Amino acid sequence: MSRTDELLEGDVDAIAEALREDPVQVPQMFGNGHTDQVRAGLREIVEEADFPVYVVMVPEVDGVTGDDAAREVATLLHTRLGGGDAVIAVHTQEGDYLGTEVATFGDAPDEGLINQAATEHAPNGGADVGVSEPGLIARDLTVLLRDGEITRSEYRSFAKEEEWRAPPDWQAGESVQDGIGSSWVLAVLFGSFVAGAAWLLWGGVAERLAAARKEAEARGPEPAQATPGEVRAEAERELDAVARTLAGRAASIGGDTRVLVDGSYDTARSLLERTGSDDPDLGDLVGALVLARVARHALSADAGRTPWRPCFVDPRHGEGAHQRRVPVGTRQLEVPVCADCHDRAALWPMRVVSGPLGRARPWYELDTVWARTGYGAFVEELWQPVARELGAREVDR
């Protein structure tokens, strides 16, 4: 058995020592049934870099908190490996955390290039669909090492090439061979939020269910949130306030501020005109409310301080004046949050009803303009992509 296959858990020092011997540490359980090809492909990418690049996939690491385990492990490894310019990709699981971070240090290319490439080459969402976790690492490293210069066909090829694509869905109880079943379980985990699959892999189902119930009780009930009708009424009030301000100060408002205000105001009004007040309408109604608040903020005395952005967890909350790392899929994103979500241990993301079954899902799991823009967290002027979206809807009618 190779050193890589032995590295299934351990402390940071042991992992750093292994990375000094081989900068790619991918045990067989993460190899997607093609471990040798995965390791060789990652080593080929790593060797192209002009600075140190490391990859480690390990279920457990001693001594990390679990709140943002992959990022914490990457930071600790960076110190152990001597600091300086580096890229460190880590996949790990600690407690309820499961995810991957491709972290950059020093003058290595900025991590923002990864999200930029996803926005450019998967504008309708679903950038990670069909790609295994080693494939995501390979793709993100390729994006970084090329300073973001990757064609759409190259970007999407990671969901097609045998060593990088996600394997077929694994079903509980079906027979598997030679450890490949383990990678199938992981592929299911990486592509969904369904914690039950993780329990099948990492421990007894009954014990995990009991622990989940206990955790839910500790979190307490979900706070009451504004209904679609209440959101519509609040958006109307905000827009009325903007209209009154414009009526009194129209001559003194010009330039970029006027463009932002007019664009946000008109787009919010269009959303309200085309939207009802039922549960499936919540996403668009909240978008109208956010745009109204953006316009009102632009007219305020604080407008020069910072652009207005909503709480990412639930944009109904108001301004995201703080920052927090929030789990989105298999990643942790640094996003704006309100004071309550910044201080609260348990987060309750806004859920929107969608699909033929009418299932409520976190808003950022849906393929919408709101998920692509983060309700303004990922773009400078929210009204522009929303206006384009509304135009496209008109064409499709």
Summarize the structure.
The chain has 397 residues and is of the alpha/beta class. It has helices at 3-6, 12-21, 35-47, 69-80, 112-121, 133-145, 152-157, 180-190, 195-202, 205-219, 228-249, 255-274, 282-298, 339-343, 369-373, 383-396; strands at residues 9-10, 24-25, 53-57, 60-61, 86-94, 97-105, 322-328, 331-337, 351-354, 359-362.
Structural class: alpha/beta
Terminal Cα span: 60 Å
Mean pLDDT, rounded to whole units? 80
- Spell the H/E element sequence: HEHEHEEHEEHHHHHHHHHEEHEEHH
For the sheet with most strands, the description reads: 4 strands, mixed
Strand content: 5-15%
Percent helix range: 40-55%
Biggest sheet: strand arrangement: 2-3-5-6
Per DSSP E runs of 2 or more residues, the count of β-strands stands at 10
Low-confidence runs (pLDDT<50, min 5 residues)? 169-206
Computed over alpha carbons, the radius of gyration is 23 Å
Number of H- or I-type helical stretches: 16
User: What overall form do the CA principal axes indicate?
Assistant: elongated
